[in-house]
Amino acid sequence: MQDLLHAFKEWLIEEGKSPKTMESYVGDVAKFQAYMVEKVVDSRQPLSRFSFVRYKQHLIDNGYAVATINKKINSLKVYNDFLQKKWYYVKKINT
């Protein structure tokens, strides 16, 4: 997963994202991946709407503010865009 995060960061650089934006996106994705490893039997499964919904509910249950949840979900949408463009996964996630 670290290789994928590194590739994501490189893609963000290519896309011209600011260092703070990259830090935010990569951090949010890393936390999502850690959640998936902890909660899901096979963490290698592709992103799905269901995994987004479960993660969002996890954030709500843990008292995150709506704005923070929305930011984290947006980071995951950008990550999904990266996966699509780099041919890791081809299905678009609609949340």
Give structural notes:
This protein has 95 residues and is mainly alpha-helical. The chain has a single domain, classed as DNA polymerase, domain 1. It has four helices and no strands. It has helices spanning 2-14, 19-39, 49-61, 66-85. α1 runs antiparallel to α2 (19-39), α2 (19-39) crosses α4 (66-85) and α3 runs antiparallel to α4. The radius of gyration is 13 Å and the shape is globular.
**Helicity range of the residues?**
over 70%
Over all CA atoms, what is the radius of gyration?
Answer: 13 Å
CATH H-level superfamily = Tyrosine recombinase, N-terminal domain
Instruction: Label the CATH architecture.
Output: Orthogonal Bundle
Structural class: mainly alpha
Q: What's the tally of helices? A: 4
| CATH topology annotation | DNA polymerase, domain 1
Proportion in β-strands:
under 5%
Number of domains: 1
The overall pLDDT average reads: 87
User: Separation of termini?
Assistant: 23 Å
Outline, from the CA principal axes? globular
Low-confidence spans: none
CATH C-level label? Mainly Alpha
**Tally of strands:** 0
Which sequence of SSEs, written as H and E, runs from N to C? HHHH
Q: What's the main sheet like?
A: none
